[in-house]
Amino acid sequence: MSAILSVAALGELVAGWIGQGKLVAAPVQVGDRLLYQTLATAGQAVFDAKRRPSNSIKEFFFPRHEPIFRYRLEGKEIALSDVVPEEREQIVIAAKPCDAAALPILDHVFNWDYEDGFYTGRRARTTVVTLACAAHDEACFCTSVGGGPEDEAGSDAMLVDVGDGKFEVRAITEKGAALFGATPGPPAEADGGTLKRAPRRFDPARVARYLGANFESPLWKELTLTCVGCGACAYTCPTCHCFDIVDEGNAAGGVRVKNWDSCQFPFFTLHASGHNPRSAQPQRQRQRLFHKFSIYPQKFNAVLCTGCGNCERNCPVGLGVLKVLEAIDGEQRRLDANEPVQA
Amino acid sequence: MTERLRQTARRLLEEGKVQVVIGYGAAGHPALITKAEDAQKLEWNDHCLANLSVYLTRKEVKALGKAAIVAKGCDERALVVLEKESQIDRAALYVIGMACDGLGAPKCASCQVHLPRFADEVIGEVAPPAAAPTGPNGFDRLMAKSAAERWAFWKDEFERCVKCYACRQVCPLCYCERCIADKNRPVVIDTSATPKGNFAWHITRAFHLAARCVGCGECTRACPAGIPLALLNQALAQATEAHFGYRPGMDPQAEPVFGAWSPADREDFIG
After folding, report:
1. Structural domain tally of chain A?
2. Quick check: is A236 in a domain?
3. Which of A234, A244, A317 sits opposite B29 (nearest CB)?
């Protein structure tokens, strides 16, 4: 089924959800940036099929900071108490397909040897409404990792800009249909073909083959030595999910929290002995690429990347994964063709 | 300018005067050139925003050998401070200065050094600086607010901080081997991206940069959450100039405020 809604009608729906006490997140204009935020008012939501927010929607499932439990020290006793879980229904609207696609990928790791109830709880009570992409830029590469401008992975419903401030609503799951008072329709034909697709930039299988045989390669240093070692790529990435667990408080008690962390920081791997197995930045860059394109695919049969391009757009030195992936894809092509490798 | 820059880089590498040229490559992104034949990869255009002096204190880059660096007037101020703080040996560094009349706002809006002054070689010329912009800018507007309004402003801005530390990593003067934010035995600054953790981080960083920050604006440019961090440092730079007549990186002869002491130092501001 599909229906057509004007941007004004969408705004009314959003206002209605907020009025019902639901948490609604959407792209919001903040200065010169578009950022996903939980809305204070419906009018903040930006429905723009041509722009990508600088951050990702993972924040609404795996927040940057999350208390796990509280503790109090009473004499020799330690009293633990659970944090009161957030139970409000959550709606993420006008998300990019490359953000939503990260959710089924992340489900693997958060339900693997241990079910992370904080994550799965949020997944269960959140409905994701994507907005199909009407444009891509130089940093976009969703089509190289199996996505596309109308990819439905992770979406409960999808909006498609049909012009004149109107959007076609495609219900994908029961959850998405319920939100718009509709019934879910048959899956749309793969990528409908109406929206312009970003060109394919590399082959993830070929990249994985290169990684399998080239843990030690001068290429890593050559390609990534300019990395300054911040976490802008990881923290704006829809799929990066590393966290640290720390206690914050004083002698009387405190809270144990789960905070985002990044393999790009030297302290991520610093041992108590002082030894650091990843002592230089190119090794940390290599790790991030291996995790996304070799380790995660081997473990969960899914590439840990949706091709959103945020890593490149947010990198203060313009690095990101795409350039490195294109270079090693080219390197593997040369190896496959049995041509002499350029010095 | 680009061609002359490439010639200089090629010559320095060929003659063995340096082993690496720290410059800008494709799309104006930082590039580390170690072979003379790669000098042609160097670029000079409006995207060459990054302050490359950040690489001079990185051990991976130091390991490459003697360096030449491409520096704009603003970047050069960082070199002056790094030398004052004994982080670089200026005599062992070749500075290729680039004349620059501004590459983009907001980074270049308040620039006062369009021409490098202490470079080994300056490439290009700049037109005489245009008249100072009239009317209040973002900094003036912020400083015109009350303390309560400024507090509210920063509370809103810091709310978006995710603690990615891009501000620190791109800062040429944040070269500490172990940042106070990474001290965990005990924790000095909460690692949590909460109002407490974020205020503690940004205020501490601003204090550590007081009388040192050269105003290159890289922190603002790098922030993925769009927080105008340079405004914090600008306020401290203004105070430093008002109280000590010192502008970091402007005069290599001037003693740094925190690095020099004299019995004649003013004490009247100590409560």
Report:
1. 1
2. yes
3. A317
**ipTM of this complex:** 0.94
What is the reported pLDDT for A191? Answer: 47
A 74-103 residues with CB below 8 A of B?
none
Cβ B166–A282 below 8 Å, yes or no?
no
Cβ separation of B169 and A229 shorter than 8 Å? yes
What are the tens digits of pLDDT across the range A316-326? 999 999 999 99
DSSP secondary structure, chain B, as one string: -HHHHHHHHHHHHHTTS-SEEEEE-GGG-EEEE-SGGGGGG---STT--S-GGGGGG-HHHHTT-SEEEEEEHHHHHHHHHHHHTTSS-GGG-EEEEE--S--STTTTTT----S-SS-SEEES--PPPPPPPPS--HHHHHHTS-HHHHHHHHHHHHTT-----HHHHT-TT---SS-GGG-BTTBSS--S-SHHHHHHHHHHHHHHHTTT-----HHHHH-TT---THHHHHHHHHHHHHHH---TTT-TTSPPTTT---TT---TT--
Between chains, do A232 and B59 touch, taking CB under 8 Å as contact?
A: no
Judge whether A98 lies within some domain. Answer: yes
Spatial separation of the C-alpha atoms in residues A330 and A336, rounded to whole Å? 10
pLDDT, residue A195, reads 79
For residue B128, what pLDDT is reported?
61
State the nearest Cα–Cα gap between B47 and chain A, in angstroms: 10
Paired tokens of A244: 């640290």
Residue A31 vs residues A28, A40, A305: alpha-carbon distances, Å: 10, 17, 28
Residues B12 and B25: their CA atoms lie apart, in Å, by 17
Residues of A in contact with B28 (CB under 8 A): 318
Bin A249: left if φ > 0, else alpha if -120 < ψ < 50, else beta: left
Closest CA of chain B from A284, distance in Å: 12
- Domain spans in chain B, listed from the N-terminal domain onward: 2-123, 138-244
Structural domain range at position A231: 2-336
* Cα separation, A294 vs A305, whole angstroms: 11
Query: What amino acid occupies position A9?
Result: A
Given B31, B160, B165, which is nearest A231 (Cβ)?
B165
Beta strands in chain A (DSSP E): 2-6, 23-30, 33-38, 65-74, 77-82, 90-95, 126-131, 157-163, 166-171, 243-250, 253-260
A263: closest chain B residue by CA: B164
In a domain, A211, yes or no: yes
Instruction: Calculate how close chain A gets to B62, using CA atoms only, in Å.
Output: 12
Exposure string for A84-96, b = 16+ CB within 10 A, e = fewer: eeeeeebbbbbbb
For residues B231 and B216, the answer to whether their CB atoms sit within 8 Å is: no
Contact B29 A248 (CB under 8 A): no
Pick B266 or B180 by higher pLDDT. B180
For the beta carbon of residue A113, count every other beta carbon within 10 angstroms.
5
Average pLDDT over residues A105-110: 98
Q: Please name the member of A54, A244, A318 whose beta carbon is closest to the beta carbon of B191.
A: A244
Residue with tokens 């690692």: B191
* Nearest chain B alpha carbon to A244: B191
Residue B228 with chain A: CB contacts under 8 Å: 31
Asked, for residue A121, whether it belongs to a domain, the answer is yes
Which residue carries 């670029």 as its tokens? B43
Identify all chain B residues contacting A257, using CB atoms and an 8 Å cutoff: 192
Say which DSSP state A186 is in.
Answer: P
